## 1
Amino acid sequence: MSNDSTATAAARFTIGQLAKAAGVGVETIRYYQRIGLLAEPAKPPRGYRRYPPAAIAQLRFIRRAQEVGFSLREIGDLMTLNEGNCGAAQAMAEHKNRLIQRRIEDLRAVQRELRSLICACRSTAAEADRCALMNALGRPRQE
Amino acid sequence: MSNDSTATAAARFTIGQLAKAAGVGVETIRYYQRIGLLAEPAKPPRGYRRYPPAAIAQLRFIRRAQEVGFSLREIGDLMTLNEGNCGAAQAMAEHKNRLIQRRIEDLRAVQRELRSLICACRSTAAEADRCALMNALGRPRQE
DNA sequence: CTACTACCTGGAGTTGACTCCAAGTCAAGC
DNA sequence: GCTTGACTTGGAGTCAACTCCAGGTAGTAG
């Protein structure tokens, strides 16, 4: 029901509010700006910089992408790809998806192993030379 | 068919051979020694240090544990636990097992999401404002 | 008007896990 | 016995991702 695009969301945050809203540190935001990951609003002639709500989304995006295993550099790539190059972003996502898949499989393999080792350890602890778990993992014995 | 324990494996490696055998760099081995992760054989009065075959196993252990997500510090803990404290090693293993489980679940969640995003992107790319994938991830739009 | 807090600028420090370098020592081939 | 390549020692450099700090400016509560 509003008239046009000039009537955008009013709330604009200071860096501290932004940090709190996005759940990161002020210093972290500045760091992201320094490395060019995050745009820094121009400093108004008087007063503090103000950040649009979209900045929260950007920060959340960064955090989420980090959790998935993207490095800040890759995230930067993703974000610039966003500006028009959908196909490339897709390709990156698919690539990352495959990496994640592999990582999951690695973790599962390790998990299976850990589990069986834990079992072995439990059942033989008393009589074993030392510890079946460590033995099976490759037994690092200080000579 | 050998007599007793004094007739242990004869092959003892120089650091370079050890590095090659374990698939790590010489500098990495030294680094591990510096931080106390790996025992350094005493320097013989003449000649180079010699490493027992067990050192290969130790290095492999470190690498594997790293892949699972143990930090060098944790690996060090694991290795000292090995010297007698089976229960504690078990506890650590179980703890790590739980962490791995959580990590796997996180990754899977992200993966599901990525996949659906990739689909969305593919199907709507032409008409979408920009890119559904990026939108859904939180759409970091440089304002 | 004065504190007080939050922001700004820039630069330096931190942590983990390496990686490189210089200058010296050693062993083995020719 | 000299050269060459590997080892040794100690320290410095690197990279990612922060984190902290000093010294100054801005906005706000009393």
Note: The helical segments of chain B are 15-22, 26-34, 54-68, 72-82, 86-124, 132-137.
## 2
Amino acid sequence: MKHRKNIECKYCTLKTSTLFEQLTEEEYALLNYDKNCQTYKRGDFIFHEGNHATGFYCVNEGIVKMFKTGTEGREQIIAFAKKGDIIGYRSVLSKETFCSTAKVISEAFVCFIPAQRLFKLVETNHDFSLKLIQQACRELGTANKYITDIAQKTVRERLAEVLITLLEQFGINEDGYLNIPLTREELANLVGTATESVIRMLSQFKSQELIELKGRKIKVLNEKELQMISEQF
Amino acid sequence: MKHRKNIECKYCTLKTSTLFEQLTEEEYALLNYDKNCQTYKRGDFIFHEGNHATGFYCVNEGIVKMFKTGTEGREQIIAFAKKGDIIGYRSVLSKETFCSTAKVISEAFVCFIPAQRLFKLVETNHDFSLKLIQQACRELGTANKYITDIAQKTVRERLAEVLITLLEQFGINEDGYLNIPLTREELANLVGTATESVIRMLSQFKSQELIELKGRKIKVLNEKELQMISEQF
DNA sequence: CGCGTCTTTGAGGGTACTCAATCGAGGTGG
DNA sequence: CCACCTCGATTGAGTACCCTCAAAGACGCG
């Protein structure tokens, strides 16, 4: 992917799933002109929490994790971004510094779009700005649900829920394993618990034949039951 | 407050702190025509989680709590809305049902504005729509911070943080007590813990002379130290 | 093959939850 | 005016969940 060539936004196959669906010729041209794309390897940072937000990013390929660094340096994963998702727009628009860090989970191709282009689009394109609001509102809904879950559910319930969510969000590969490579620690940072707790719970799920484990890879065997657990029955 | 008369939006003293700051004459007129205001007593519901969102609300007076109902009926308080805040817009824009319930904490005067007026404003007024996006983005930032806190901090740290937040958000009355009347249970639902845990922690804070308690009323005596605790030093 | 990183397992302990009982204040009705 | 009732606040006891620390095992990479 190293020497990957930029695709013109106008012809980008992802535009239907992003906000950039119905721009004018001119807007496409400007967007394309302003953008700055590059590949990132696993472990690379796209932006850091606290940095000044000079623009936002559109993920064309790969998986990115968004996390906040809490006390004693522990990461709390807030969300993942994949093909077609935009990240960092939140901080650009609210004119704050980035409120989370974006780090690459699997090799990614990401386009950077400077802040003023975003503001310009919001100003001139109603459709775009409505979609953007809706995007933010959906994320807000998800975040609120997450707060309730973390506050009220047990680790067991949350882990089950996370597995279901990952399954829906990233699907499975040809072997039936979840299509996202996470370390145990990352899983823990997503669930909001200690690494060891995740490990213990995973082996419990395994012994109940709800999942199959092969190193870092996870296969969901009984989605229904996991669903039940996550809703605590 | 029972027979309170509606104020014209255009002359509403709160408009500077809300999104409705720079509307055209016509927009003010339409907003004013469409709205529907009423008073609510403590305990009244403004809207319920899961209901169809036919519009949003602007709080003119009083305090409203927003919460999600989690497992076994336990409330998780997501936010408060006071004078000048708008609520429910999230669900209107993302065209979902209300994702939380709004219930009155202290007597409130609230204006309802139907969905199509909101969509119309977003469509025709760039300034309004930018402010709305920024509002959503700020809320999103807060929510993400909250997730990290709940996942990583202890009850003691979270309670200290909540007290500081309430102090900043609602201030104190002439006696020096926090200007928001919350039951112990509501505090617990905000912190994300059991009622008894909040009570125990409050008396611990009291014995350390960080706060003073008088029935339901709380006075912060040592903000600095509470701040320290919330950041775990 | 050796090293580092990640994973796993075990032991021990602390935080915070649940359950239960008591206390206290405010409101109601006799 | 007081007994009564109800709801919220408080306190205590017991325990479950989950965290931390420590050590050993597995895996991948140079």
Note: Chain A touches chain B through 46 residues (CB under 8 Å).
